[in-house]
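Predict the 3D structure for this chain.
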Amino acid sequence: MAAVTDSSYAQRRDRIETYFDRTAVEAWKRLTSDAPVGRIRATVRAGRDEMRRTLLAWLPADMSGRRLLDAGCGTGMLAVEAARRGARVTAVDLSPTLIALAQERLPHDIGGGHIDFLAGDMLDAALGEFDHAVAMDSLIHYSPRDVVDAIDTLSQRVRGSIVFTFAPRTPWLAAMHAVGQLFPRGNRSPAIEPVAPPVLARAIEARIGRRGWQLRRTARIARGFYISQALELVRR
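Done. Predicted structure below.
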C-alpha cells in the first residue's frame, strides 16, 4: 500500500504542513541559522548537526551523476552538502515557506551538483526515481505503521540506499510525550511517535526484504533535548 494515499498519513501530513508553514516558521529560521538560541534549542541544533553529518557519512563521498531525494529537506542544509559532492538533488518539503527560505539561503558555490527545491509530498510518485533517499527527522511525527508504509513506498523508487531517522522509544522520550499530553495548546507541534528500534527494523525488513533490501547499520544521536535514531537500508 502506498502511504501517500493512506488517510492517517494524509491527516498527519496536513497537520505537519500547517505547523511548519505557519506556527513554527520563525523558530525554524533561527534554529537552522547561526543566530543565538536558548539552551534547549542549542542542544537540538547540536543534535541535528551531528545527525546530518552522520547521514551524509553514509552517502557516497562522490555523488557525481547520482540522484538524491532529500525527503523533508527543511531549509536545505543537507541538500547543499550533497550537491557539493556532485549529486542532483530533489529537495522536497511540505512547507512552501521553508522551501522559499532554502532557496533564499542557497549558496552560490554548490560544486558540480544541482538542487531542485519543491514544495510537496515526499512520497509523490511524480518526483521520479533516485539512487539514494534521505529522510532526516521528517518521519518522526508519523505512526510506526505509516513509517513502514513510507519506507515501502520509497523503496520502490530508490535503487541504492535509503537513510532515515525515527524517534527511538526511550524512558526520556516517553516521559516528555506523557507530560506533553497533559498540557495541550493550540500551537503545539504534531506529537512525536516513539517506536522501539528492533520492532521498527523487523517490520521494515519484513515488508521490503523480499525486494532485496536489508538493514546495514544504525546510529543514535542524543544531545540534550534531541534524541533521534538513524537507519540505513541498502540493496543486497
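Helices lie at 7-23, 25-31, 39-57, 77-84, 96-105, 144-155, 171-182, 197-208.
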